[in-house]
Design goal:
The protein has helices at 19-28, 34-41, 47-50, 61-71, 75-80, 83-86, 104-112, 181-201, 205-218, 245-248, 262-276, 288-295, 301-304, 320-330; strands at residues 130-131, 136-137, 151-156, 159-164. The protein has 352 residues and is mostly helical. The radius of gyration is 22 Å and the shape is globular. The protein starts with 18 loop residues before the first helix and ends in a 22-residue tail after the last helix.
Length: 352
């Protein structure tokens, strides 16, 4: 593969910056997206070069060499900025693999400090839903157009600023409005929960197994055929509750948090606290409320046979019955078709 000469200007990565964020900032200096710049840097590498997108978890050696030569940076330094290197004890199921939620207050702080805005590494951790610095909820929706947040860095007043790709709005707090006290209190409570979850994720494997089992069960489909909502729905005090479209992608998945928005991940932490108390994981004896929920979960292999049930290709095996329940859980259900009526009639109030 032919690699072109180095770039004349290449900003250095910040200490707590995502690798993909740094690549986006370098590309933005030349008015390009990262993939476009990679294709240029790789020269005539063909379609293989076009496929080399940034992987924050474990970046490929070939991609690191391209950026190393173009930006005159030690490839080992780039490797150390991968999530796998920064968090060696963090299972890969606990890294987000889609939208990176962001803290607008952090972006404003970057501008106030006279530096480019950038994405922080901890925003890619599945348990992170609150910014620990500003104690505000992370955003995965554009506050202007309400679409899924996809950022593009562009130059504004001499600094790179984050823009929404959909509506071209610059992401900033701007007016300095006072935040709702209820939101502040909620974020503070969830911040403590995410700290505890982080300790579990990178701590004792036994507690992590129990935590993952509990989360998978909460987001498993209900045992009733055609129920297009997860077990977690029974925690609500609303018999007619439908599972929103944005949450259905997580129903029946072996790693649900990877597919959930910030608000649903935060809600999952709150439910874990309500069910299991300060430990956030099931103990030897399940509380009564947890028993009610867990008994309603559809039987899926990763709920019954442990987290290591995998086939030869590294994917979890699912029998035909489980596939059918999983498929039904994704089906759209009209709110008046009776699917949700009287689901909680025999169990009473679950949410405390």
């Amino acid at each position: 593969m032919m690699v072109r000469a180095g770039l004349p200007v290449a900003p250095r990565p910040f200490r707590d910056e995502l690798l993909s964020s740094w690549m986006a900032r370098v590309a933005a200096r030349y008015g390009a997206e990262p993939l476009e710049l990679v294709v240029y840097l790789a020269g005539h590498g063909g379609r293989d070069a076009c496929a080399r997108q940034a992987d924050d978890v474990v970046p490929g050696m070939g991609l690191r060499r391209v950026w190393d030569k173009a930006c005159r940076i030690d490839p080992e330094r780039l490797r150390r900025r991968s999530l796998a290197s920064r968090y060696p004890d963090q299972p890969q199921d606990w890294f987000l693999n889609e939208t990176v939620p962001s803290c607008i207050a952090c972006f404003d702080a970057d501008v106030a400090a006279g530096r480019d805005a950038y994405l922080r590494v901890n925003w890619r951790l599945a348990e992170q839903v609150v910014c620990p610095t500003h104690r505000t909820m992370l955003l995965d929706r554009c506050p202007a157009c309400l679409g899924r947040l996809r950022l593009s860095f562009r130059m504004l007043n001499g600094l790179l600023r984050p823009f929404c790709r959909k509506c071209d709005t610059v992401l900033t707090g701007g007016g300095g409005e006072t935040e709702d006290p209820l939101k502040v209190d909620f974020a503070a409570g969830v911040l403590e929960l995410q700290r505890q979850i982080s300790e579990i994720v990178r701590g004792d494997s036994g507690r992590l197994d129990r935590l993952e089992h509990a989360i998978r069960t909460l987001w498993a489909p209900l045992d009733r055929d055609g129920a297009a909502r997860p077990v977690l729905a029974l925690w609500y005090d609303e018999p007619g509750w439908n599972c929103p479209y944005e949450a259905r992608a997580a129903v029946g998945r072996p790693a649900p948090l990877q597919h959930l928005s910030v608000c649903w991940r935060a809600l999952t932490l709150v439910v874990l606290h309500d069910l299991f108390g300060a430990d956030l994981v099931p103990g030897a004896v399940l509380p009564q409320a947890a028993l009610v929920l867990f008994r309603r979960a559809a039987l899926l292999p990763w709920l019954t046979n442990g987290r290591d049930l995998r086939n030869g290709k590294g994917k979890r095996t699912i029998d035909a019955g489980a596939e059918r329940v999983h498929r039904l859980s994704k089906r759209s259900v009209h709110r008046l078709n009776g699917n949700f009526l009287d689901e909680r009639g025999n169990f009473g109030r679950i949410h405390p």
